[in-house]
């Protein structure tokens, strides 16, 4: 795993994001409501 990948992973953990699929089948990243 590269440094960039590690950084991305950490960022994703801090920024709670969930990936949903809309009615058209598109994947959308939605910020978690706190």
Give the helices and strands as they follow along the chain: HEE
Q: How many domains? A: 1
Strand residue percentage: 25-35%
Strand order of the largest sheet: 1-2
**Count of distinct strands:** 2
Helicity range? 25-40%
Category by helix and strand content: alpha+beta
pLDDT averaged residue by residue: 78
Distance between the termini: 30 Å
Biased composition (Basic and acidic residues): 1-12, 19-34
Region (Disordered): 1-34
Could you explain the architecture of this structure?
35% of the residues lie in helices and 29% in strands. By secondary structure, the chain is an alpha+beta fold. Strands 1-2 form a two-stranded antiparallel ribbon. The mean pLDDT is 78. Residues 1-12, 19-34 have a biased composition (Basic and acidic residues). Residues 1-34 are annotated as: Disordered.
């Amino acid at each position: 795993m590269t440094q960039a990948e590690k950084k991305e992973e950490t960022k994703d953990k801090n920024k709670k994001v969930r990936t949903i699929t809309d009615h058209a089948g598109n994947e959308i990243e939605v910020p978690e409501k706190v």
